[in-house]
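Recall that a protein's primary structure is simply its ordered list of amino acids. Everything else, from secondary elements to tertiary packing, is in principle encoded there. The following example makes that idea concrete.
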Amino acid sequence: MTQLILCQTPTKGWVNLAYVRQIQFRRIHIHRSLQITCLVTWSNGDKEAFFAKDAEAIAQALNKQPYHSPR
């Protein structure tokens, strides 16, 4: 039985992160501003993008920094 790793996002509601196969955090330019994005590949192979506050909520649920600046 799959465990639940629930995360409530501001715009997409609840997501179960237990079904994540791969996750990537990036910063991209949207509407002339730099925003955090999260690209999730689900266990069934589907991909879904989360932006701004949704991406931050997922990072927080996984206890991860969404982005580290290269020096």
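The first helix runs from residue 52 to 61. Residues 19-71 form one domain.
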